[in-house]
Amino acid sequence: MQETTISILGAGAWGASLANLALANGHRVRVWSRQGNETLAEVIKDADIILSAISMKGVREVALKIQSLTLPPETIFVTATKGLEPETIYTPSQIWQSCFPNHPVVVLSGPNLSKEIDQSLPAATVVASSVDSAAARVQLAFSSSRFRVYTNPDPVGVELGGTLKNVIAIAAGVCDGLQLGTNAKAALVTRGLTEIIRIGNCWGAKTETFYGLSGLGDLLATCNSALSRNYQVGYQLASGETLTQILAKLPGTAEGVNTCQVLIQLARQQNIVMPITEQVYRLLQSEVTPKQALDELMLRDIKPEYGY
Ligand SMILES: NC(=O)C1=CN([C@@H]2O[C@H](COP(=O)(O)OP(=O)(O)OC[C@H]3O[C@@H](n4cnc5c(N)ncnc54)[C@H](O)[C@@H]3O)[C@@H](O)[C@H]2O)C=CC1
Ligand SMILES: O=C(CO)COP(=O)(O)O
């Protein structure tokens, strides 16, 4: 395998897992974290690939810092963040691309709970870019017998699958916390996918992408695992804890909390009907209890399955 210099930005759960996958494949790996001793300039020097696994709130700040540094023109950016920027409604890849218009940007996203990856359990993911050769290079760099990497030509669709499912994962946690059963969960996840497709198309994402690993695949993983922080937020809300209490003890980032606010803003602007997302939003704002949110969803006007 071609040896590659990979600089990973963010030493949280996901950054650490991806660094280990790259190391196991024999690459030169450097990790930058804002708490670490090495400067950004030192860590990204001569990088073939710069991979960001920073939580959403830090993405633009770090991208702007890198803009002032010198980079080889062929450096590939990879983004593994699952979130949306509130002010612009940009996805992370759109931020990286707008800051580095002459560099290829690749999205890496899939059903990838980091704790399972750390245990060397098998997993698959997707790397997506408008530049095929860049996606192929990242695919080769990360593929192994325990991490199967597919390419895809729809970066924003792949990225939105991972981002939008976090809101539905909060709802799935509530569903399990209230012990609503398997039928309810299946209905929730399936109708959740309908909402994801409806709003995801606003960014120009392809519908078929949402049926793949980075869409349905990640939705299933996150909605069915207690390892998911977003699921945990919902589960603990159903147990009567407040959002502030839950976030104070949550290990790591639950991006769905902020993503939900951004989605509601966009859905209201564009008149997109998102009843599950709306109830998750109201629950996070303490406007409804989990039980009231359930009743609101079940008692909506009856309607055909397809169409608004
Ligand atoms: N943990 C997982 O299983 C997966 C996480 N992701 C996504 O990856 C992203 C990171 O997740 P985790 O590593 O789990 O979160 P984490 O909370 O463990 O780590 C977040 C990292 O971002 C850094 N960071 C936050 N704000 C920053 C700023 N302003 N400047 C510089 N660095 C900053 C933190 O220092 C930390 O290194 C999230 O968007 C998450 O949705 C994606 C797939 C799997
Ligand atoms: O995105 C993830 C798995 O693919 C991780 O989910 P959480 O951020 O909810 O832990």
Automatic annotation (TrEMBL):
Q: Which residues bind sn-glycerol 3-phosphate?
A: 82, 110, 165, 218, 228-230
Q: What are the UniProt keywords, alphabetically?
A: Cytoplasm, Lipid biosynthesis, Lipid metabolism, NAD, NADP, Nucleotide-binding, Oxidoreductase, Phospholipid biosynthesis, Phospholipid metabolism
Under which main EC class is this enzyme filed?
Answer: oxidoreductase
* Signal peptide per UniProt: none
What EC number(s) is this enzyme filed under?
Answer: 1.1.1.94
Q: Does the keyword tRNA processing apply?
A: no
| Residues where NADPH binds | 14, 34, 82, 114, 229, 255
Every Glycerol-3-phosphate dehydrogenase NAD-dependent C-terminal domain range: 154-294
Q: Is Hydrolase found in the keyword set?
A: no
Q: Which residues form the Glycerol-3-phosphate dehydrogenase NAD-dependent N-terminal domain?
A: 6-37, 39-132
Q: Which reaction does it catalyse?
A: sn-glycerol 3-phosphate + NAD(+) = dihydroxyacetone phosphate + NADH + H(+); sn-glycerol 3-phosphate + NADP(+) = dihydroxyacetone phosphate + NADPH + H(+)
Checking InterPro entries in the record gives: 6-PGluconate_DH-like_C_sf, 6PGD_dom2, G3P_DH_NAD-dep, G3P_DH_NAD-dep_C, G3P_DH_NAD-dep_N, NAD(P)-bd_dom_sf
A Pfam match: NAD_Gly3P_dh_C
Q: Which PROSITE patterns match?
A: NAD_G3PDH (PS00957)
Describe the task this protein carries out: Catalyzes the reduction of the glycolytic intermediate dihydroxyacetone phosphate (DHAP) to sn-glycerol 3-phosphate (G3P), the key precursor for phospholipid synthesis.
- Supply the name of the protein: Glycerol-3-phosphate dehydrogenase [NAD(P)+]
UniProt organism field? Anabaena azotica FACHB-119
